[in-house]
């Protein structure tokens, strides 16, 4: 898989998200910043992002993906 493909899959469920992806082939690290994460716990956020690539994980096209999720407000504090 390519980084652009991972971003496109996540964008399906999180169209307004800012998505940062590193990695190649079948191993990626993602940072997803989205207002949709407001009020959700960390595990809920990660599960919702991983659900967008479930088919690729099952097929083996994607072997591993670490996910960090932030609301825009959290990201502003984290990256600021």
Detailed description of the structure:
This protein is α+β, with helices and mostly antiparallel strands. The chain has a single domain (3-79), classed as GMP Synthetase, Chain A, domain 3 (2-Layer Sandwich). The protein is 44% helix and 26% strand. A hairpin with a 2-residue loop joins β1 (18-24) and β2.
Write the topology of this structure.
Elements: H1 3-13, E1 18-24, E2 27-33, H2 42-51, H3 54-59, E3 64-70, H4 72-79
Parallel strand pairs: 2-3
Antiparallel strand pairs: 1-2
Short description, anyone?
It contains four helices and three strands, in the order αββααβα. It is of the alpha+beta class and 80 residues long.
Q: In total, how many beta strands?
A: 3
* Element pattern in H and E: HEEHHEH
- Give the neighbour order of strands across the main sheet: 1-2-3
Pairing-aware structural class of the strands and helices? Answer: alpha+beta
Would you give the CATH topology?
A: GMP Synthetase, Chain A, domain 3
Whole-number total of structural domains: 1
Rg over C-alpha atoms, rounded to the nearest angstrom: 12 Å
Helix percent band: 40-55%
The low-confidence runs, each spanning 5 or more residues with pLDDT under 50, are: none
Keywords summarizing the entry:
3-stranded mixed sheet, alpha+beta, GMP Synthetase, Chain A, domain 3, 80 residues, 3 strands
